[in-house]
User: What shape does this take?
Amino acid sequence: MKFSEFNLNPDIVQALDSAGYTDCMPVQAQTLEHTLLGKDVFVQSQTGTGKTAAFLVSTFALLRSGALKHSKALIIAPTRELAVQIENEANLLGYNLGFGICSFYGGVGYAHQEQCLADGVDIMIGTPGRILDFKKSRKIDFSKIGIFVIDEADRLFDMGFLPDIIEMLRSLPPCCERKTMLFSATLSREVRKIAREYMDHPAEIEIAPQQVTVDAITQELYHVSSNEKMNLLLGILKKENPSSVLIFTNMKGEARIVAEKLRLNGFPCEHISGDLPQGKRSRIVERVKSGKLRYLVATDVAARGIHIDDLALVVNYDVPEYCENYVHRIGRTARAGKSGKAITLACEEYVYALDAIEQYIGKKIPTGFANSELYAEDCTAGMVFRRTERMAGGRGQRGRSSSRGGSGRGGSRGSPKSSSYESRRSEHKKTGYQKTDQTSSGFKRGQGNNTGSKESTEKHSRPEPRGQRAQQSSTIFQKGGVNHVKHQAAASQSAPEKVGWFGKIRAKLFNHNG
Assistant: This one.
C-alpha cells in the first residue's frame, strides 16, 4: 500500500515522496488506518520496522487536520540518541509543513532548549527526566498537549520510567481530548495497564517479531570459553572484514575493555555507554553514521536510537540476559526490511540465557564450528585491564543513571560501584579508622600502641588551656597504614570560664566580708 492512497494532506505526501517514502511498511499501513480515524493505538513492533515514520506521519496528519482541541504533540523516547534520531526524521519528513520541532534531553545545558520553548514548539521530543524538569518549571504546559506518543515503551519501563510516564499521563488532558500512541517491542503487563487505564479504547496492532529475526538476518552462534572470546572476535572481524560493525556487551566496563583491546590489536574502535558525556557520545555516533568509524562497542541502553544505514554486522560479544534485547540488537543490521548478519559468542558466563532467546524467536540459532584458523592472536593477552566504572551522581532514583543534567534520572539502568572501590571499602572496614589530632605544640590524641586503652584516653583527654588562641591544627586519618592530612582552621575565640551556683554565692560572701 502506498502513502498516497491514504487521505493525507498533499504537503505531507510531497514531503514523503521527497524523502523516498512511497510504499508503506506493514506497521505504517496498519497504524495509519486507525490514527487517521482519530483512534488511539498501541502497537507491538520491533526496532527497524518503520514505526518512527508511522507515528510521525500520524502526528503530522492530526495536527494539520485542525480537529484537535489541543495543538501540541509530545513524543517520549528512552534515550538521548533515540530522541535526536526522531527529531532528525521529523525534520526530514515534515520539512515543508512549518512545524516547530525540537528535542529535549539531559546531559546538556538548558539554555538552547529553553530558547526553543520560548520561540514556540509544536512537536516536542524528549526523554522523561528533562521533560519533567520543564514541566515542574512550568516551561512546558501539559494542558496544551493534544498528541502523546510513547516510543519503545518496554525499554522505558525496564529503565524504571513507568512512574514518570504515569505522572505525565495524569497531567495531560483527559484521554477523550487527546490522541495517544504507544509503541513497544513486547506487550507486557505494564504496557497493557497503560492502554487500559490511560487510553481511549485503543486499537491493538501486532507485527510478528519473527519477521525481523528470521527472514532478513543471517544468524550464527559460536560456543567459546570466556578467555578465548577476544581471539575469536578478532578472527571473525578479519574473516568478515565488515564495512561497519556494532559489538554489544552486557556491562559498561566490559564495553570499554573490549574497545581498548580492539584498538591495541589494530582495529580503530570506540565505545559508548550511559556514563559518557553527551557531547562525546554524539561525536562518536556521528563518526559511525558518516562512515568514518567502522567499529563500535556499545551496551544495550546506549545503542538505543543509533540508526546506522546498511550496518553490515552485529556481534553479540555477550549473550544478552533478556531475550527481547537479542531482537533489538540484531535488528540494527536489518532495518526497514534490509538483510544483515548477526554473530553471537556464547561463553560459560552467559550461555544460560540462550534457551529463552531461541524460544522467543521461535527457532534454533545455527551453530558454527570455530576451528583453530578462526582464532586470531590477541596482542593484549596477559595485560591487566581495570574493570572500574565511573560512579553516577545525583539521586539515582529507581536505579537510573543521570540524564537530566545532574538530577540522577534518565539513561541507563544503574551505575554499579567499581571493584576497586568495593575492595578499598572492605579494607577500611577491616582495618578501621584511627583518628589523631595533632596541634602545633606537639600534643597528640589517640596515637601510640595503647590508643584504645583507658589509660591513654584519660591521659589525652585533658582540655586545652582556656583563654589562649588556638592555632591551626591538622587532623590525620590513618587508613590502612597511610596517613591523609586534612587541615582544619581552629576556633579563634577564647571560651569564657563557667562558674557554678556555689561559686557565685561564695563570691558574694567574700565581697560582703571584704
